[in-house]
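Recap slide: Deacetylase, sequence and predicted structure.
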Amino acid sequence: MYGVFTRKTLFALLVILIVVLILMGVAGNVMGVSAAPRELPIYSVETPEKVLSLGINCAWDDSDIDEILKLLDERGVKATFFVVGTWADHYPDAVRRIAAAGHEVGSHSNTHPDMTKLGREEIAQQLDASGSKLEALTGQRPVLFRAPSGAYNNLVVSTARSLGWEVIQWSNDSLDWKGLSVEEITARVTGAAGPGDIMLFHAGKPNTAEALRRVIDTLAAQGYRFAPVGELVYGPPYTIDHTGRQHK
C-alpha cells in the first residue's frame, strides 16, 4: 500500500510539474511577444581600424569655436558638431564657419529639452525645426541627432529613425562640462580610447580646446585617425548590440 501511494504521489507531482512548465513556457512566449525591444542609439562602432570620431556639442556659447576650428585645421581632423537650434539662432556665423571648414553638422535638438518627456509630434517638431535652421545655414540637411543630455527612450529613437535621422550617443565621455582640468580630460579620454569610439566634448567650456589638442596629438601618435561620425557609422543593414555598439 505504501509503495502504491508513493507511486501515485510521484505521478501526481510529475503531472503538476509538467503543467507548471507548460504554463511557464506559454507565459514566457506571451511576454516575449508583448515586450517591446529596447531601441538603442549608436554608442560606438565595431571596426578593425584604429579610427574614432570627435562629437562636439554646441549648446552654450561660441567663445572657443575659432580656437577649436583652428586646431582641427592644423591637424587635418574633421569632427561632427551637434548643434542646438537656439545656439544656431544666436551664433549663425559660427555654424557657417563650422560647415565651411568641412566639418559635419548634426542636430542636438532645437531647444535642448528632455526628449523623454515629449510626445511623438513634439519630438518631430524639435528635429524638424533644428534641421531646417541648420540646413538654411549650411546648405545641407543634417541626418545625425544626439539627444540633449543623452536622454532617450524607445519613442525618441524610433521617432527619429522613422523621420530619417540616425541617433548618436557616445562611448567616450570627456566630462569637460564638469570643469575638469586639461590634464584630467586628456587622461580620461586617451586612457579609455579604442577603435570605433564616438567621443563627447562641449564647445564653450574653458578647457575643451586645449584638451582636444592634447587628445588628438596623443591618439594620433598611437596610430589613430579621426573621421566624422557620419563616416564612422555603417548604413543599413546593421545591428546594434546591447551595449549600443554598431555592427555591419
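The chain has two domains: 1-35, 44-247.
The first strand starts at residue 44 and ends at 45.
(End of recap.)
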